[in-house]
Design brief:
Largest sheet: 5 strands, mixed
Number of strands: 12
Number of domains: 2
CATH architecture of the largest domain: 3-Layer(aba) Sandwich
CATH superfamily of the largest domain: Periplasmic binding protein-like II
CATH topology of the largest domain: D-Maltodextrin-Binding Protein, domain 2
Order of helices and strands: HEEEHEHEEEEHEHEHEEHH
CATH class of the largest domain: Alpha Beta
Strand order of the largest sheet: 9-8-10-7-11
Strand content: 15-25%
Radius of gyration: 22 Å
Structural class: alpha/beta
Number of helices: 8
Length: 280
């Protein structure tokens, strides 16, 4: 009997060594780590999937120029993990205009993630998730024509319409006539073309653009604003509390921290905290 038991144990050990490792559960290029369906949502916006809105472009956070091309990025992989834990292995990305998103003029999605700062004004038309990322306000300039904390107030400054960066430039810095652009892409293109001297938006976004331009632009400093990103939920939707439970679980078990290390720190090559702070 003892011999038989040893033979069986040896055979089991051999099979364990010989068997290929189980493939990771994936959505796009994102390896999902939670238990599928552990926190189910009953009635998603579209049956059989999670639908997430974003205002593109959003490099590093959503890697790709069109919804169909995006398979990874910080917020994309967060959305993939939410979908998985909600019980779905399908994730649809919907590109919406920034102004329409912030004004709650779009619909047909379960949540939106687009580096959106949580503000009291926005809470009037949206429900927000728990915060998942802290960001201050960065100043991006061309490397060959930098400005500083003094000249920024008289420089040609670009901002994105409807953002907290636009409000900060006029209300806190006293920029009299900032150039206002409908989206990030237009603002950064204007900076590269020399039409403006600096762009002001979230430090996280300016760092991504610095990397994208290969050093032709640079983040010369940031202002302390204490902003925090959150996902937008449709106001009063029955699934909001459940999705927020998933989001909180991802914070508690370290999933979001791991995604940040993989997608943000590695892409920027520097810690946002290393960027010097300027006085308004």
């Amino acid at each position: 009997m003892a011999i038989t038991k040893r033979v069986l144990l040896a055979a089991a050990a051999f099979m364990a060594l010989a068997a290929p490792a189980a493939a990771a559960d994936m959505i796009g290029n994102c390896e999902v780590s939670g238990q599928k369906g552990s926190i189910p949502i009953a009635a998603p916006a579209k049956a059989g999937q999670l639908t997430v809105a974003v205002s593109l472009p959003a490099p590093v956070w959503w890697n790709g120029d069109t919804p169909e091309a995006i398979k990874d990025g910080m917020e994309y992989c967060m959305a993939a993990e939410i979908a998985w834990r909600a019980g779905y292995d399908k994730l649809e990305v919907v590109n919406v205009g920034w102004d329409a998103l912030i004004a709650a003029q779009t619909s047909g999605w379960d949540l939106a993630m687009s580096e959106v700062s949580i503000t009291e004004e926005r809470k009037k038309v949206h429900d927000f998730s728990v915060s998942y990322f802290n960001s201050d306000m960065g100043v991006l300039t061309r490397a060959d024509a930098p400005v500083d904390g003094t000249t920024i107030k008289t420089a040609k400054v670009g901002v994105q319409q409807g953002t907290t960066g636009a409000a900060f430039a006029t209300e806190k810095l006293g920029v009299a006539e900032p150039q206002v652009y409908p989206d990030q892409g237009d603002m950064f293109a204007a900076l590269r073309a020399g039409q403006i001297d600096a762009a002001i938006t979230d430090t996280s976004i300016t760092l991504a653009e610095e990397v994208a331009t290969g050093g032709k632009s640079m983040v010369i400093g940031q202002y302390k604003t204490g902003e925090a990103y959150g996902a937008i939920y449709p106001k009063g939707n029955a699934n909001n509390a459940t999705i927020d439970k998933i989001m909180q679980a991802m914070i508690d078990d370290g999933t979001i921290a791991k995604l940040g290390a993989k997608h943000l720190a590695s892409a920027w090559g520097k810690d946002p905290a290393s960027i010097p702070y300027l006085e308004p």
